[in-house]
Amino acid sequence: MMSSNKIVLPAEKWVELYARISEYILEYSSLDKIYNDDGTKTEEKQDEFCEIVGSVEEIMRTILVKEGEE
User: Fold this and answer.
1) At what angle do helices 43-60 and 11-29 cross, to 10 degrees?
2) How far apart (Å, rounded) are the C-alpha atoms in residues 27 and 24?
3) pLDDT tens column, 23-43
4) How does DSSP assign 35-58, residue by residue?
5) Contact between residue 1 and residue 58 where contact means Cβ atoms under 8 Å apart
């Protein structure tokens, strides 16, 4: 059962928020190369980013709810 005092975010804001937070965590916690020469994340860092996203979304769900999931 969802708590009625959680802030509801539109889906696009939800994605923007978890992506930004996850990107900051990845960049500030990594001493290794994050990006390839073409600007894409290395495969290892992309995997790490996806793991971070899962944790960030878990934390977000303690105080926020994505629109459509209320």
Assistant:
1) 130
2) 5
3) 999 999 988 899 999 999 999
4) B-TTSPBPHHHHHHHHHHHHHHHH
5) no
